[in-house]
């Protein structure tokens, strides 16, 4: 066992790049486990300091939940804010109803010594991402509805969407000393 641990540490010291592709359903109760899997190697690659890992987990959870709830299950974001109990009851019900029950999320993870890139694609209708306000402009802060997207856009170095608005790519670069 100890020999195996040492060989894993040795391999991580020499690993240059890693890519993973996952396809998951709409079970939002599995999101925390998926996020832990998505971020398990960030410290080893030197992309984030251990102290930043919690924030990355929160942001990726937000991205996956947005894709499940608002993309695949087509739930209105206001419902979550106004009546959380009804929101989650509706989500559970829609998970078993066609066409929502067959929809998947595609997750692509590319981690290297220079960056971590996460792609999240749902099978929903998408949204008008071009209508998003600039989260870094102080005048927009009181007007922005999507706090999760605001946090993602402020923490990640790059965030962009496909034209349809059902695929988000987030990139975090390794910080140089």
Automatic annotation (TrEMBL):
Signal peptide limits: none
GO molecular function: protein serine/threonine kinase activity
InterPro entries: Anti-sigma-factor_SerPK, HATPase_C_sf, HATPase_dom
Residue intervals of the Histidine kinase/HSP90-like ATPase domain: 29-171
Gene3D superfamilies given in the database record: Histidine kinase-like ATPase, C-terminal domain
Keywords: Kinase, Serine/threonine-protein kinase, Transferase
Protein name: Histidine kinase/HSP90-like ATPase domain-containing protein
Gene source species: SAR324 cluster bacterium
